[in-house]
Specification:
Structural class of chain B: mainly alpha
CATH superfamily of chain A: MetI-like
Number of helices of chain B: 11
Oligomer: heterodimer
Strand content of chain B: under 5%
Shape of chain B: globular
Largest interface: A-B, 82 and 82 residues
Distance between the termini of chain A: 36 Å
Radius of gyration of chain A: 23 Å
Order of helices and strands of chain A: HHHHHHHHHHHHH
CATH topology of chain A: MetI-like fold
CATH class of one domain in chain B: Mainly Alpha
Structural class of chain A: mainly alpha
Strand content of chain A: under 5%
Order of helices and strands of chain B: HHHHHHHHHHH
Helix content of chain A: over 70%
CATH superfamily of one domain in chain B: MetI-like
CATH class of chain A: Mainly Alpha
CATH topology of one domain in chain B: MetI-like fold
Number of domains of chain A: 1
CATH architecture of one domain in chain B: Orthogonal Bundle
Number of strands of chain A: 0
Chain lengths: ~270, ~280
């Protein structure tokens, strides 16, 4: 019974370095930077950033959906290989995540730039260079590139844990392979899709580096605004208010997806 | 359908690795623009090793990664043991706290810790609070949940009778832990520690908000570099780190394969024993 107490140092750590800091964010969001008096001004000023919020959510949403569409066939393919091959392919998917995303994003800049590698190739073919960078498309590409492994991992986990007997049962009952996928495999992989969705959406909606490098002034994201409040404009109160809204947004998003997956599990158990 | 998935997977892997190829090729390029390959050279590697700024920063990053991995592995393993023995209500409350840094956007974690450190700095009247210790604290904080989440499943998989047997045979609970339990959950501890190490080594967003001029890590400095045109020695550094991480991944892969084989063999031996007993 005394084993329980082993978690005490951890809990103290988490209270000091996770819960109290969030309380301080809340305090800053509702106070004035000079007088430290209670104010709603920071929250009201957020409405100026509504277009930025909407743009962030929109781009992160498109990227997450693209990651589902791109990640699903890959996860499905990997899950069907031999165990050794699965481990190898999984490693290949994981490996890029361990390498500085700053540098990998910079590599995309040299690929997509107006004088970059792809446009250089297009020029040697005698065609006109394409506007590949500093637009929404480039930011989405950066998000999909950086966060695709976060989608493939949970999808793969769900697919390999799937009970093979269910698929065999569907086949025995006369389903063709399309029907097996539609009626058995896909519904059972929804928890994986949802957890992949949150794992992509959360970092994508809060990123600031990708949009700085691959986007333009028209593609400013909420992460850029928060970063500039702390690093350039120095208005931590407004920055805290923006962080608070971002956090609430993310928790709502996770709440919604959790609700979906909970309902699903109930369906499955019935 | 299978051929489509195969071709598609290969295309996705190409998509994932093309930028890395660009960086590796750029590290051997005798020019500054990665888009124009002038001629093959090793001078970027020479200038990297004679660089007096980048290598100390890499060492800083490794120090933070090693220390934060050790601290979070010890604290996290203890926490996992504690959580494992909790009742369902307390456990779900603790796991909810554990999930906060996992689900919170990194930028919010960074900002909240920056505000906490600024607050501590002003109350204790420390001027330059940001530095080594704030980075270490931040890294331990975001590593802890990963350690717990990789140790917990091993505790659930472990046969509880093993610990009971050790206690019956006269072990104190501490002896039972070090003689029996720790061996059972070792794969989880190792993978948690490795995950903590790599997460910490590569962390930029949270570090960016809690670093100070006295102690800078490599990713933060790379960010400051990328505001200007990149120096080619950064590409050389990337290539070396890529190779090191690749080797680490392969080693982890082999360890996992061995772990899997051992547990399979053990299961088979156990089944054989049971059959004999019957």
């Amino acid at each position: 019974m005394r084993t329980k107490r082993l978690a005490v140092p951890y809990l103290i750590w988490m209270v000091i370095f996770t819960i109290i800091p969030l309380g301080i964010v809340l305090y800053f969001a509702f106070t004035d930077s000079v007088s430290h008096a209670f104010t709603l001004e920071n929250i009201i000023r957020i409405s100026n950033y509504m277009p930025v919020f909407i743009n962030s959510i929109w781009l992160a949403l498109i990227s997450s959906l693209l990651c589902i569409v791109i990640g699903y066939p890959v996860a499905y393919y990997i899950a069907g290989r031999s165990p050794a091959m699965q481990r190898f392919l999984y490693m290949l998917i994981m490996l890029p995540m361990c390498i500085s995303f700053l540098l990998r994003t910079m590599a995309w800049v040299s690929l997509l730039d107006d004088t970059g590698i792809i446009n250089g190739f297009i020029r040697t073919l005698g065609l006109k260079p394409l506007p590949l960078i500093r637009n929404n498309g480039a930011v989405i590409l950066g998000m999909v590139y950086n966060y695709l492994p976060y989608m493939i991992m949970p999808l793969y986990t769900v697919l390999i844990k799937m009970d093979r007997r269910l698929i065999e049962a569907a086949q025995d009952l006369g389903c063709d392979s399309v029907q097996v996928f539609q009626r058995v495999i896909f519904p059972l992989s929804i928890p994986g899709i949802l957890s992949g969705f949150t794992m992509v959406f959360v970092p994508a909606v809060s990123t600031f580096y990708i949009s700085q490098k691959l986007g333009s002034s028209g593609t400013t994201l909420i992460g850029d605004v928060i970063e500039s409040q702390f690093k350039a404009a120095y208005n931590p109160n407004l920055g805290a208010a923006l962080s608070l809204v971002l956090m609430i947004l993310v928790f709502i998003c996770i709440g919604i997806t959790n609700k979906f997956s909970d309902n699903d599990e109930e369906v499955v158990t019935i | 359908m299978k051929t489509f998935n195969r071709v598609f997977t290969i295309l996705v892997l190409i998509f994932l690795y093309v930028p890395m190829l660009v960086l590796v090729v750029a590290s051997f390029n005798n020019g500054t623009d990665p888009a124009v390959f002038k001629s093959f050279t090793l001078k970027n590697y020479r200038s990297l090793f004679s660089d007096s700024v980048l290598l100390p920063l890499l060492i800083n990053s490794v120090i933070i990664a090693v220390l934060s991995a050790i601290i979070s592995t010890v604290l996290g393993t203890m926490a996992a043991l504690g959580i494992h023995s909790m009742g369902p209500k307390l456990r779900s409350a603790t796991m909810a706290v554990t999930n906060i840094p996992l689900t919170n956007p990194e930028i919010v974690t960074g900002v909240s810790l920056a505000l906490l450190f600024a607050f501590i700095g002003t109350t204790l009247k420390i001027n330059n609070i940001l530095g080594f210790f704030t980075l270490l604290i931040a890294h331990v904080t975001f590593n802890l949940p990963y350690v717990i989440l990789s140790v917990m499943p091993k505790l659930y998989q472990m046969d509880p009778d093993l610990r009971e047997a050790a206690l019956d045979l006269g072990c104190t609970p501490i002896q039972a832990f070090f003689k029996v339990v720790i061996h059972e959950i070792m794969p989880g501890i190792i993978s948690g520690a490795m995950m903590a190490f790599t997460m910490s080594l590569d962390d930029f967003v949270i570090s960016y908000f809690v670093y100070g001029a006295t102690f800078v890590t490599l990713p933060v400095e790379i960010y400051n570099y990328t505001k200007k045109p990149l120096q080619p020695k950064i590409y050389a550094l990337f290539t070396l780190m890529f190779i090191i991480i690749l080797l680490m991944m392969v080693a982890m892969n082999i360890l996992q394969a061995r772990d899997l084989r051992l547990s399979k063999e053990r299961k088979m031996a156990l089944n054989a024993d049971r059959r004999k007993a019957v």
